[in-house]
Amino acid sequence: MSSNDNGETRPGLFRRVFGGGRSEPASPPPQEAGPSPTSEPPPKRTWWSRLTGGLSRSSAAIGQGITNIFSKRKLDAEALDDLEDILIQADLGVAAASRVRDAVASGRYDKAIEPNEVKAILAGEIERILAPVARPLAIDPSKKPFVILVVGVNGSGKTTTIGKLAAKFSAEGRNVTLAAGDTFRAAAIEQLRIWAGRTGAEIVAGQPGGDSASLAFEALSKAKKDGADLLLIDTAGRLQNRAELMAELEKLIRVVKKIDPEAPHAALLVLDATVGQNALSQVETFGRVAGVTGLVMTKLDGTARGGILVALAEKFALPVHFIGVGEGVEDLEPFEAKDFAEAIAGVER
Fold this sequence. Notes:
Helix content is about 45%, strand content about 10%. By secondary structure, it is of the alpha/beta class. The chain has 2 domains: about 50-135, SRP54, nucleotide-binding domain (Four Helix Bundle (Hemerythrin (Met), subunit A), Up-down Bundle); about 145-335, Rossmann fold. An 8-stranded mixed beta sheet has the order 3-2-4-1-5-6-7-8, with helices on both faces.
C-alpha cells in the first residue's frame, strides 16, 4: 500500500524521510517589527541547462581536444588522426569516430578550420547516429497494467530510475504500482517505499531475502485487481557474467508470464555511463536473457566518456528512452538526439 495512506502531507513526509526536522541554530531576533521579507526562489533551470551541465565533463574533454588540434593549424592527416583518437577516448566508438573524421575532412583538406566548425560537424554526425534510437517509451493503454521490467548491474541506478519514472507517470495521472523485486537489498526495498510515498504509488514489498519471482507474481496480481495503469518491477543488480543470477531473472520473467503471457511489455536496461565500454557487454547479455526493449542511461554527469551512448546506438540500435544527468527527478528526461549531440559536442545556443 502507498506510504502516504495515513494522510500525512507530502512536505511532512519529506521532513520525516530526509531528516528535514533536525534542530537548527536559533536565528537572531529581527531588528525591526513587522513581517519578514520573503526571498525569491531561484529560477528553475531549463533542461538544456541541466543537460549541458551534466555533460560538461564529456564536452570539456572533447572540446578542449578539438581546440588544441585545430587552433591556428591547417587540416592534415595528423590532425584528423588526433581528432579520431579524442573521440575514441570519449567512447564514441571506432565507427562513429571514423564517420566524424570523414565528415570533417570532406572538402577541407589542407585548409584552416575553426574549432567551432569542427564541433558543429561533430554534433551533426552524432545526431544522425542517435536520431533513429531517440524514441519515447510508448505505454499501450490496452495492456492494463502495462508491465515494465527494470534490469541492470549493481549500482547502475535501477531503483532510483524507477522512482523517477513513477513520479513522471503519476504526474501524468496514471495509477502506478511498484514491485520491490530487489529482495537482496533491504535498502532497495526501503528506497522504493520512500518513492512510493513521494509519488502516491502503490507498492508491493516483502522481506529482504525473499523470492523475487514470487514477489513479482504477487505485485502483478494486485496491480490487475486494482486496475493499475502501470507496474514497475525492480530487480536485484546482477553482474552480466553470473549465470546463476541471470537464471533467477529468467525465472521471474517466466512467473510473470503465467499471469500475462505478453508481460513484461517493456524491459528497460539501466546503464551507468561511467562504466564506458563495459556497457556494450551488458546490453548483449541482458538483451539475451531479459529481451531488453529499451535503454536508460544514467550518471552522464559523472563521466568524461559520455560518448558510449553513441557507440551503443551504432552497435545495437536499441531505443534510448531516457537519460539522467543528476539526482533530481527533473534530471531524468526523455532522450532527444539533437540536444544530446549539441551538448556533448559543446555547441553553444
